[in-house]
Amino acid sequence: MRKQQLYYCSMKQIPNLITSVRLISAVLILALCAFAQYRGYFVPLFIAAGASDMLDGFIARRCNWCTEFGAKLDSVSDLTLYASVLTFLVRYAGDSVRQALPLLLIGLFTQAFHLVLSVQRMRQFPAYHTTFSRISAYMIFAGVLYFWSSRTPNILDTIFALWTLCSLEGMVITLLLPEARTNVSSIIAAVSASRNLVGSNHSPVTK
Q: Which of 78, 104, 134 is the last residue of a domain?
């Protein structure tokens, strides 16, 4: 029995190991900013990071290996990847980034405000992984690859707009939730959780 428990606990770490690929890729992408001769490695590193983002959550949900630690690690890895990719684009595509500067600044502000709000209200890093944020992540992933290959500035506007909308959704969920939670699928789910708590608090006590 103990061996089975240890085996199960070990298997539950597989999604977290896959998530770690994203963290490592993010660090390496950041390192490319200092070594221009190796910037051609950006695409394979970014694809590896994107693949890990698609696989870790899928495996965790499919095998029922979702954990609070895994949800938080996933969110930290996402934010680290976004920061490293943004730094990389500023370094090697600065003119295009400057054209999208207003939306970039709005995105940075809403993301920062969301983090502060979550830490202040919930005492934890936000890790909701909503359906909208997952779809947006796939679109941002494809958008970054397309921008890097085509240098189409308007793509950055779309990327930063999606980023801002994800942060705004997270802020609304943080304000709606009655307590700290992870893996909240949508604003509707947050409203439902809030109503359920209110209902339980007002239910009659039976002896």
A: 78
User: Into how many domains does the chain fold?
Assistant: 2
- 181-205 tens-digit pLDDT: 988 999 999 999 888 876 665 555 4
Residue 87, domain member (yes or no)? no
Q: How far is CA 119 from CA 50, 66, 82, 91, 190, in A?
A: 27, 22, 20, 31, 17
> Token pair for residue 69?
């630690």
Tokens of 157: 């506007």
Tell me whether residue 199 is in a domain.
Answer: yes
Q: Residue 129 in 3-state DSSP?
A: coil
pTM: 0.86
CA distance 118 to 167: 11
**Pair (67, 132) in one structural domain:** no
Q: In this predicted model, what pLDDT tens digit does every residue of 12-30 receive, in sequence order?
A: 788 999 999 999 999 999 9
Percent of the chain with pLDDT over 70: 90
Exposure on the CB side of residue 99, measured as CA atoms within 13 A:
12
The full DSSP string for 60-77 is HHHTT---HHHHHHHHHH
Distance in angstroms (rounded) separating the CA atoms of residues 200 and 177: 15
